[in-house]
Design brief:
The protein has about 90 residues and is α+β, with helices and mostly antiparallel strands. The chain contains one helix and five strands; from the N terminus they run βββαββ. The termini are far apart.
Length: about 90
């Protein structure tokens, strides 16, 4: 996800989503939006996903005419890896 608060939008390139944002957009809001999208995609693939985790996060200010006018946020998340189903077995003697 890439957020540009100066221009007032965010994009999720993998989904082709580009939406407008409100003033005061923050990391917390970005994480909410991206995690909701990830969980929705997991549901479409019939995956039992409960948790997501942040893989990368960057935030830096945008400056125009020597003044900070907003910020660029880059956020990368993934479904938390783990074992989906436990496999049990028993020893077999031949």
């Amino acid at each position: 996800m890439r957020v540009d608060t100066t221009e007032g939008y965010y994009i999720i390139p993998e989904a082709g989503i580009r939406e407008k944002i409100q003033r005061g957009f923050s990391r917390t809001k970005a994480e909410e939006i991206l995690s909701a999208w990830l969980l929705e995609q997991a549901e479409k693939w019939q995956m039992e996903a409960r948790n997501v985790e942040v893989m990368a996060y960057e935030e830096f200010p945008t400056i125009h005419n020597y003044y900070t006018t907003g910020k660029i946020i880059y956020l990368k998340m993934q479904l938390k890896p783990g074992i989906l189903h436990t496999v049990t077995g028993r020893e077999v003697a031949f």
